[in-house]
Amino acid sequence: ALQQAVQATDRWYLHYASGLSAEQLSERLHFNFVDGDHDCMSREEMLAHIVTHGGYHRGAVGRIMAQLQLAPPRDIYTRFLHQDQPQRREAS
């Protein structure tokens, strides 16, 4: 169920982002963070934040695992690419 929900969210983001014009991407929106702080960011800045924010959490989990003397999983972008597109490993 989690995998399906993540895939649905991914599809929504791809559909949303691909439909934005340059003017819409640069539009600045006012909002409140969950802690109540106010801010203003462009849609482009918000999307960049979403893309990079997960990396912060993944790094934090890696630090916690190291503190517990657990080996973090090999969870790197290059591994994903090679599993998703094995032809990349072919010699040129």
Can you tell me about this structure?
The protein is mainly alpha-helical. The chain has one domain (23-89). The chain is built from four helices and two strands; from the N terminus they run H-H-E-E-H-H. The protein has helices at 2-18, 22-26, 43-67, 77-84; strands spanning 28-32, 38-42. It has a two-stranded antiparallel ribbon. A hairpin with a 5-residue loop joins strand 1 (28-32) and strand 2 (38-42). It is extended and about 45 Å long. The chain starts with a helix and ends in an 8-residue tail after the last helix.
What tags apply to this protein structure?
60% helix; 2 strands; 92 residues
The average pLDDT value, as a whole number, equals 89
Shape from CA axes? extended
Number of domains: 1
Measured between the Cα atoms of the first and last residue, the distance is: 40 Å
| Low-pLDDT runs | none
Biggest sheet features:
2 strands, antiparallel
Summarize the structure.
By secondary structure, the protein is mainly alpha-helical. It has helices spanning about 1-20, 20-25, 45-65, 75-85, and strands at about 30, 40. The chain contains four helices and two strands.
